[in-house]
Specification:
The chain has 219 residues and is mostly helical. The chain has helices at residues 3-10, 26-39, 51-55, 62-71, 75-82, 88-102, 109-114, 125-134, 145-157, 161-177, 182-187, 194-199. Residues 1-21 are annotated as: Disordered.
Amino acid sequence: MNAKKKATDTTKPATSTVSNRPRAALSALLVQAAHVEARRPAPSGSRRLDPLARIFDANASRAAKIAAVSRLADPVPLVTLAASDAPAYLRRNALLRLDELMDGRPLARTDLERLVPCLRDKELIAFAVVLMDIADFDWCARCDEGTVDALCLALHECQGLHETVLLEDTFAHLVHTRPDLGRNLRACSPGPLHLKAMYQPVVAHNVVYVDLAREDNVA
């Protein structure tokens, strides 16, 4: 190897930290593709936009954009959308659609690496963890104080029972696997967990038993 080639090689970083990259600029990637799709002639004279184009149609409503995300049938644009700087509601629905589309099958590791920033967003963390758990991806190792902050906000603001249970499961995993984040986790403890309430034995108090076999009962 000549000296010039060797000098060039030594300037390259030893490793690539994918998870530390900033989120992809949405306008630089997806909007361009959407504009191309929007200019294509629609089959059979239809004016219906491609789902990807609909997402970036300035005249489309929020509901129409969410519906467009639900029609995407390729994981690639969904991962790109979830990992981008798009509005949180679009990224959230991209994660939900990915879970539906994959139907229990794991995403590629490279795709999961791109979703790591979702762990630091209160709107996305629960659904990103679901996809990572399916693939046995060590998301706990990628968490930091920013993740705990997002999880804390999500736990205190979430209204849906299903998402709350997912968040509490995430909280429990972090408590078990990341003792170094224990101080932050204790500061935002969600209190009585829904998971505990759902699975603890039910103890009956002040129960009145009615003998339905008796002829004189009026129950």
